[in-house]
Amino acid sequence: MFEPRPTEEPRLVSTSECVVRPGIIQRAWLVELASELCALETAEQWGSGIGDLWALDIAIAQAASPGGMVVLSNGRVGEPDKEKSGIPEELRAPESRDDLAARCEEEGFRTIQWIVAAFDAPEGVLEKGRSNLDVMASAALRALREATLTYAFGDFEKDIVRDALWGADVRERLDRLSLRVLDLAPLEWLSEEFTPRHYGYHFAWDEESSGLPTQARPGQKLPTGRLREFRPRRFSKERRVFDQRVRAIEKNLSGLPRIIGTSWDAPSQSAIALVRSFRTTDPRWMENSTGASDEWECCVCTNQFLGDDAGDLPVKYLSRAAIPAGHYRIATIHSGQDWVDLVLKYPMVMVPSGTSDWVEEWSGTARGTWVTLDWQKASEDVDGVYVSVLGALDAAYVPLAVSIKEHELWTMMTGWVPGSVLWMNDPLGDAVTHVSAALI
User: Fold this and answer.
1) What is the mean pLDDT of residues 286-293?
2) Could you give the number of structural domains in the chain?
3) What is the mean predicted confidence (pLDDT) over 301-309?
4) Do 180 and 64 lie in a common domain?
5) Between the CA of residue 86 and those of 90, 92, 329, what are the distances in Å?
6) Does 320 map to a domain?
């Protein structure tokens, strides 16, 4: 007897249906900060009645429970409960998109309430023996690490859905509140201008071991061999889509430089080798009442505790050398608009690399052809590109529309270490050791 194939139960929302707005990581940072604050031992004294923040997180992460909220690799979030018995009300998966939106909204207001309550707490109440300023700053730095480390390769689906379902009032209030956090004296460096004396740790890939993508200048054709290398080998829908996208780029955008072989991190999107310099930091910034843990004692620069790969590269592989004092031509990224302006001046079209859709994993509703920075062209006018922590919070993993020669395109900053410089013209020359990628 024929039995129809069971249909997949509808899920509540997909990240591809959500608009990803500038500042999404900044707002995710404040959620982490609120979690840090409400976990303080004194929280019941100054935050009584606000309520916990972990209920929605647990509901979203219950992939193993029957019908619980799930975050799947296909970017879909949420599934109605099949069985509710034994599950506390606050941990049950939302049953509708409206229910999910209401829970997100509630979490947003609780986030705001916890941070405001901490700011308003009497001096010395947050933690015995420490000023409220120090407690807030340390909690903000721990939250900053968590938000920038886990967004792209862990929490982005949840963060995108939550940010999209928040009402405009929640987002605007969080954005205003983030300015208050950034104004804390110990956090002034998050929005500072580039100063050579602060950048003493450096890393450069070995070109031969890591490889570089291939670039075609305006009017040149992309090398056939490289196209063949990234073209899906089996005849399939993916191969047809790849061929169509490449033909469209070569037909409509051949007047712009194009690059193939790129990946998610910023240095891999350059046809010339880039040297990375990281802002020197002080592990004591992350201390809690018991002092710095072993985890923090190695956090001597932003590469060790901020960004997607925080701590993956041991300090011993970083060159320690001060950048000489002098005048450097630096392009500064403090906001998404700064990145857009730079790309508009030096655009580079990214040709798809096989079936990889890494850029669209984080793009929400944005779809189309993607452009990045023409590092080689920019190097004629600029020595390096500096992204402040504030700039990364506003612009990282956010799809931004750009119009180039009447073509509507997209750009996105991916794989940047907040508080770092990517140098096209190395200020240290041979002083930076080129380390083999095999060592990592």
Assistant:
1) 50
2) 2
3) 93
4) yes
5) 12, 10, 62
6) yes
